[in-house]
Amino acid sequence: SALDILNLLIRIKLPNISPAIYLQYIDYILDCAYNTPTTIVKTGALELLETILLIFPLGITPKLSEARDVVRSLLVDQDLQVRKTAGRIYPMIFRVVSVSNVEDFFAGLRMEVDTLKKGGLEVVGDPLVSKLSKEEQESVFCQTIEAMGAISQKSYAYTIVHELLHLVKSNNGDIRLAAASAILSQVSLLDPIQAQTILWILLPLYGDPNIKVRLAYIRYLKQNSNGMDLSNKAIPPHPDDVSILPVVNWEDVLLDNATITCNSKNLADILYSVEELISSNAFDELPPEDDGFYLPTISAKLMARFKQLVKLTTGELPADNTSQVIYFMQEFQKNLQKQGNVILVLSEFCCIHESTLNEIIDILVTHLGCEITSENTPLIEACMLGLRNIS
Fold it and tell me: Which of 8, 144, 221, 379 could pair with 339 as two cysteines, CB 3.0-4.6 Å apart?
């Protein structure tokens, strides 16, 4: 189709021509994505927009708000393929947001998260989600969280992390996964002490009963690049990309004696499928060293693995940060499925931070004073293992 041809011409990064195509057709592309009733045209327009986000991450700045609104509207399209493509592209929009626009884009996402979290009348006031089922609203909620995690401005990393931390205790595995993935994507943007603090708080995710959450955390441990990073490495921006692209005169570009050049690397770029790149780092099975814990079983083997992970990922914190870790750990205990893991991590935290000894022992002893039931047996076992670890 014509959209596919335009996609290829932009992907091969022709001097003058590729920017000229973007400038001339961006409004048409957004209109096709938003207004056409045909699935194949909508999907083609979205994929062309995806290419533009990769090739002209600076040049698209003047149109980024429009692109965000169009793609957001398609997150709830009737067609599954359109929803899937829009969901893949939505975080990419926030990945390229400029310093001057990040405040507005972040504020919009935070308002959406608050609206969907509150539900009820708040949702009724949002025409995008008011008529969606609960499951569809949760899907948009997760995509909004993922978009927040895609913001790459260092000055907002700490704010984003603290906006999402409370969602890690959610009983909904998909929400927990989206929040954990978004936070982990921000860790590299934090200062070293902030990063260590957050990694302590997230350490119980290693023993999360939801296999997808565990896989996301283990991918982070193994330093696997996320899909957007892989896409940016495989398909780098146009060398002439700037925030305000110069308007090109087509008559000058296409003169009879004009020379059009393209290097072999750019020709090779057209072979990459962005969809495949984004999914290529996902593995479905746990590595041997991270498997065999039979969760939610609490065991000495799991305790030993947590001790290893502490050495690999984090370390001793200043006194001002220890209370923050304990606070969030206790918040996470409100999720019954995570209580045992939190206790094991707290016991190791206590071993490294002696000033927390009395507070953490009190937490463990309080749990041991409860009546034993089938539901809290893993928690009791974790407290006993934790006390043994501390001693």
Answer: 379
